[in-house]
Automatic annotation (TrEMBL):
This is Probable membrane transporter protein. Pfam families: TauE. It is a multi-pass membrane protein. It comes from Streptomyces cacaoi. Keywords: Cell membrane, Membrane, Transmembrane, Transmembrane helix.
Length: 315
């Protein structure tokens, strides 16, 4: 019973972060399952089965609050489902230990870009509103879906920073679209695990516990992401990406840092992240509280047109 309560609380916390920042449900939940002795394939299968329900409710909530771009969902979700199904069926014979650090380097770079871009310059607007093309979203979806199924998480950590970095979609719609399209990924991954594993190692009670916690948090997270300022949201997502991938690299065979080094680096990242969030919040308040231009300062292009002089009647 204690384990089920812990799983429900983990599902609630993970979905709250995932639904508001676009990542971390799979990584958080899978890490907990591995910690209690579940094998990697069964842990990923359990998480993805729970995600069928949480992503469905989360997607509906994001749609209700206007956070979803359905064109992005279609362009990235279908390739993501293909990648997830393939990843799930080959997980038992695949080792991602070498690929994980390499992917973390790429994601760390994207995270630093997102963190710096939103913190220092605010919401990118130069490309805002331009369409995201299939040749970008298709391969991104396949890679993210494959990593999500094989690693127990990866759809958000790969998809969210890549789309944010493009500057073509505002943060809340990036997060809402990624969360909504994840339903297709979870469905395909679960089907792949059922084909490859059957129900071996999957505890239905654990699935339901994770699902229950996630269902409670999903609507709250969708509401939250709509009301958090875009600049602050971008800094929050960027910091989470940096922290997650720094952690992966420090614990990998590439680095193998000791506990002292790890905690020192974590402390520095937390300080940097807190400073970035503070700066973004101050800039948001400064912009929001900036006085409106006086009437005499109204630009010519925005001024009301002067009334035309009355025409003199002609004889």
């Amino acid at each position: 019973m204690r384990t089920l309560i812990l799983l429900a609380l983990a599902g609630l916390g993970a979905q709250l972060v995932d639904g508001s920042l676009g990542m971390a449900y799979g990584v958080t939940s899978t890490t907990l399952l591995l910690a209690v002795g579940t094998n990697p394939a069964a842990a990923s299968a359990t998480v993805h089965l729970a995600e069928i329900g949480t992503t469905l409710v989360s997607g509906a909530a994001h749609w209700r609050f206007g956070n979803v771009d359905w064109r992005v969902v279609a362009k990235i979700g279908v390739p993501g489902a293909v990648g997830a199904f393939v990843g799930a069926t080959v997980l038992s014979g695949l080792s991602t230990e070498l690929a994980e650090p390499a992917m973390s380097v790429i994601l760390l770079g994207l995270g630093l870009y997102v963190l710096g871009r939103f913190t220092l310059l605010g919401l990118p607007t130069g490309n805002l509103g331009k369409p995201l093309r299939k040749r970008f979203l298709g391969p991104l979806g396949i890679v993210a879906g494959f990593l999500d199924a094989t690693g127990g998480g990866g759809w958000g950590p790969v998809g969210t920073p890549a789309i944010l970095a493009s500057g073509r979609l505002e943060p809340r719609k990036v997060i809402g679209s990624i969360d909504t399209s994840e339903f297709l990924v979870a469905l395909a991954a679960s089907a792949g695990f059922l084909v490859g594993l059957g129900s071996e190692g999957v505890d239905a009670a654990w699935v339901l516990a994770l699902l229950a916690g996630g269902l409670v948090a999903a609507p709250l997270a969708a509401w939250l992401v709509r009301h958090v300022p875009p600049r602050l949201l971008g800094s929050a997502v960027g910091g989470l990406i940096v922290l997650t991938n720094v952690r992966t690299l420090l614990r990998s065979d590439w680095v193998g840092a000791g506990d002292g080094v790890q905690w020192t680096v974590y402390a520095l990242v937390y300080v940097l992240w807190a400073a970035a969030l503070g700066h973004s919040f101050r800039e948001h308040r400064r912009t929001r509280n900036a006085p409106a231009p006086e009437q005499g300062d109204t630009p010519v292009s925005e001024a009301a047109p002067a009334p035309s002089a009355p025409r003199t009647p002609t004889a």
